[in-house]
Amino acid sequence: MEGDAMNQIRASFKMQLDSFALDASFDAPAVGVTALFGPSGSGKTTLLRCIAGLERAAGSLHVNGATWQDETQFMPVHKRPLGYVFQEASLFLHLSVRANLEYGLKRTPLAERKVPLEQAVEWLGLNHLIERKDPSQLSGGERQRVAIGRALLTSPRILLMDEPLSALDNTSKHDILPYLERLHRELKIPVLYVSHAMDEVARLADHLVLLEKGRVIASGALNEMLARLDLPTAHFDDAGAVIEAAVTQQDEIYHLTRLDFSSGHLWVGKVDQPFGTVVRARVLARDVSIATQAPQGSSINNILNARIEEIRDEGPDKVIVRLKVGDAQALLSRITRRSRDHLALVAGMYVCAQVKSVALMP
Amino acid sequence: MTTLDTNDLQAVWLTLKLASVTTFMLLLIATPLAWWLAHSSKWYKGMVAAVVALPLVIPPTVLGFYLLLLMGPHGVVGELTTALNLGRLPFTFYGLVVGSVLFSMPFAVQPIQNAFEAMGKRPLEVAATLRASVWDRFVSVALPLARPGFLTAIILAFAHTVGEFGVVLMLGGNIPGETRVLSVAIYNHVEAMEYGAAHWLAGGMVLFSFMVLLGLYLAGGKSWKVTR
Questions:
Q1: Nearest CB to A94: which of B129, B136, B145?
Q2: Which residue of A has its CA nearest to B224?
Q3: Cα gap A142→A127, rounded to integer Å
């Protein structure tokens, strides 16, 4: 267990507020991105604030083997080696952009500084912003990028992000997502990411902690969690599976790219990436239909052999089906109850999953 | 035509000295008090706020009267200062400073408190996550962000002290060079029917006050706009 603790976040908090009680415990690997996901009011922001030490709840918190809080001690916020990105960028308006970036850097002991200023500036595309005097003149997306850079420059051992995109309009969101994905790929520090938007989570997270009414209802690897029909996530309108696959072939004539995953492949619209690049694809349950025999003369490019693992009713007219492609990759399919009965679909059957569309998240 | 004599100039100088010392003392006292009022959630916070605001509504003579009793030979403060070998405060410059500080307290506390409240807790939380200790984030974040509030507090406390009359009269009387400030000197001239000298002093005070305010507004105007 001790060896495990070195790469683990173990949190357990209890707090009673006027209108709401937090009683949340979870373990998460301290690698990659862990999403704290739940509807608004589920306590995910409060939980994140407890982890940062901004909120004082009873409980314990161990990060990478270090105790940040237990019955006898409470490490003050400024002593915790964390970076925090708030929902609104909250730049210091009395400081220039550069002074904002340097604020935490200056307060980080020399020996602990691992992220040079130039590196953060390059990562977040801040070159043309750093000499700006008045941070209130920046756009929402620019401000949030400066805030992320400012947090990274303290060389944190964990990065906490509280819905960093939710205060942004769609354009700014699309502007900033590639930077977050780049951080996800290149940064070796674990990230706790609070969100209520499934598309962000599917795009960025590796691990999912699901919250409801102040409690953790489940946690685990993103793929496994999204495929669990007992969880609310499988019943969202945009429920679906995530497939990580590598670019293996380019069809220059039809402008298509072949992506291979452990137990199959998908043809998708051209992805301009070198061979071997791993990309994330999201396949929504509503875009997957089921046929009992390989369809003839279909316009659908992607037909995967799969086995039905579980079927659940979803309202009066729909059912959700969990399929397995090979022995690792799950898929969800949402079909009508009538189709299930007409095709006599039951768990254990082998079927063809027809994937109508694939959303790429390069 | 009457002009100003040395006594009048002494009164001008004394008034400026009193206002400066009072403003300085007020910044030292009002800053932590305003911080506490802005952030505390103690049940007696309302009571403290009410006491601080009291000089806004009670007549200066009432405040002066009670201070006189308190600091006099039979008052608690009076006995304390005597025991400490400091002598008694009424009819001294330092007695006036104590009276002025209390009298102008709300004018210093409220703008600073408003500035602390307006910035909210977020900037301080951000600073904490960026490794700044409690004192560090007060100095590097709270104070600069509250600058407009401090400017307002300085202007109001200074101007209010310059214009003070009732507390001074009750506490300090009319001792030249020690407690005879401008407002008292003007009163003396009017009593003696020396309207010419009274005009010089009164007119000069209006002009001076206007110049101070104008200068501070012009200097502070930029940062005042930035606040919100």
A1: B145
A2: A94
A3: 11
**CATH number, domain B6-226:** 1.10.3720.10
Give, in order, the Cα–Cα distances in Å from B196 to each of A51, A166, B11, B121, B190: 72, 69, 16, 55, 9
Q: Side by side, which strands form the sheet with A288-291?
A: A288-291, A350-355, A302-314, A318-325, A329-336
Gap between the Cα atoms of B81 and B83, Å rounded: 5
pLDDT at A2: 44
Domain architecture of chain A: domains with CATH:
2-233 (3.40.50.300), 240-361 (2.40.50.100)
Which of A314, A301, A328, A300 has the alpha carbon at shortest distance from A233? A314
Q: Chain B contact for A93, CB < 8 A? A: yes
Q: Is A107 in contact with B132 (Cβ distance < 8 A)?
A: yes
Could you tell me the residue ranges of all domains in chain B? 6-226
Looking at this predicted complex, what is its ipTM? 0.86
pTM: 0.84
Q: What is the pLDDT of residues A88-115, one digit of tens each?
A: 889 999 999 999 999 999 999 999 888 8
Least Cα distance to A247 among A266, A221, A229 occurs for A266
- The vertex-B21 CA angle with B17 and B23, nearest 5°, equals 115
Q: Count CA atoms within 13 Å of residue A284 on its CB side.
A: 11
As a whole number of angstroms, the distance between CA A77 and CA A117 comes to 23
Contact A90 B123 (CB under 8 A): yes
Percent of chain B with pLDDT over 70: 94
Whole-angstrom distance, CA of residue B217 vs CA of residue B113: 20
Residues of A in contact with B126 (CB under 8 A): 84, 86, 90, 92
Residues B96-131: pLDDT tens digits? 999 999 999 999 999 999 999 999 999 999 999 999
A185 inside 8 A of chain B by CB: no
Burial bucket for residue A241 (CB in 10 Å: 0-12, 13-18, 19+): buried
- Give the closest residue to A233 by CA, choosing from A21, A65, A42: A42
Joined tokens for residue A198: 């499934």
Interchain CB distance below 8 Å, B131 and A54: no
Q: Which two tokens stand for residue A132?
A: 């700006």
